[in-house]
Design goal:
Strand content: 15-25%
Number of helices: 4
Strand order of the largest sheet: 4-3-2-1-5
Order of helices and strands: EHEHEEHEH
């Protein structure tokens, strides 16, 4: 894209992004996820995902943060326990207060899955494992 071109020509969208949260994710996938996150941010879109600290989710969050974008991480309350640092499992972009963490409740992950797509204008699926497959096929 040409220098100085308008990257925000379309209305801002809420994009739900699924992808790996594994530290073993191949670099070619994390590089693509970073670029996607940065592009979404530069275009003014909100990136919604599972707040992972590794894999495609982490790379996408890093890219969105580097592009000064807005990120919404959706976690489940079972990861928030008394006395624990629940941020420990989330990407560092959620520690500065600039981005949002939404905490889902319930006996299973169904509410978290619902909150991920709630209000989404689009879904993006990046490489992942069984967890990614499960979330996409719900």
């Amino acid at each position: 894209m040409a220098e100085g071109s308008n990257l925000t020509a379309t209305p801002p969208l809420r994009i739900c992004c699924y992808g790996s949260s594994s530290s073993r994710t191949p670099e070619k996938y994390t590089d693509a996820a970073y670029q996607l996150g940065r592009l979404l941010a530069l275009r003014g879109h909100t990136c919604v995902n599972g707040a992972g600290a590794a894999g495609c989710m982490a790379a996408m969050n890093r890219g969105a943060s580097d592009g000064n974008g807005h990120i919404v991480g959706v976690i489940h309350e079972k990861f928030v326990v008394d006395g624990s640092d629940w941020f420990e499992g989330a990407h560092s972009v959620f520690r500065d207060g600039k981005n949002e963490i939404v905490v889902a409740s319930g006996n299973d992950l169904q509410e978290r899955k619902r909150l991920l797509v709630d209000g989404a204008d689009a879904l993006v699926v990046l490489p992942g494992g069984p967890g990614t497959w499960d979330e996409v096929n719900n």
